[in-house]
Amino acid sequence: MIDLALIKKHLRLDSSFDDGSDDAFLLGLAEAALKLAEEMTGTCFTSREEILVLDGFPPAAAAIELDWTPVQNITLVEYIDADGVSQELDAETLRLDSRKLVYPVLFPPFGQSWPRTIAEPESVTITAEVGFEALPATVRSAALLIIGHLYENREASTAVNVGELPMGVSMLLNHYCIPRIG
């Protein structure tokens, strides 16, 4: 997350007038700014756990495309086998292809296929640690620009067009954009 003192410094909030009453609001703007940055780029910036639920494994050794990037670690892969028994795969033996500018894909261990699952929805659950351990400086700068924009334009209608973010936001986040189709 972004440090509250840094947000206040960026907004040029004079400490003599700051009684702390806007702190929760400012932290909410920071959360919204990072969420917007993630939506704009398709990249996870905050470190967190994510879960992907599937209706079964793909055939043979086909890849499973994950919905987030970057993936730090696959922590758990659970599935219900063809006999209806809950099983776990050894996550450390799975192969994770996490090249930049594409969503990561997960493969079974070398020379193996995905196990068969029960023919039921939600029979596979993949849990992963995603995001950056530390927020990249360019993302922090973009988020601060978004926070400043939201702080100054709190109403739905103002003299300025609130639909447009500062130009620097796109420039700072471009490096993290994942091309998406559809």
From TrEMBL:
Gene3D superfamilies reported for this sequence: Phage gp6-like head-tail connector protein
Q: What InterPro entries does the record point to?
A: Phage_CHP (IPR011738), Phage_HK97_gp6-like (IPR006450)
Q: Which NCBIfam families does its entry note?
A: phage_chp_gp8, put_DNA_pack
Q: What is this protein called?
A: PhiE125 gp8 family phage protein
Q: What is the lineage of its organism?
A: Bacteria, Pseudomonadati, Pseudomonadota, Gammaproteobacteria, Chromatiales
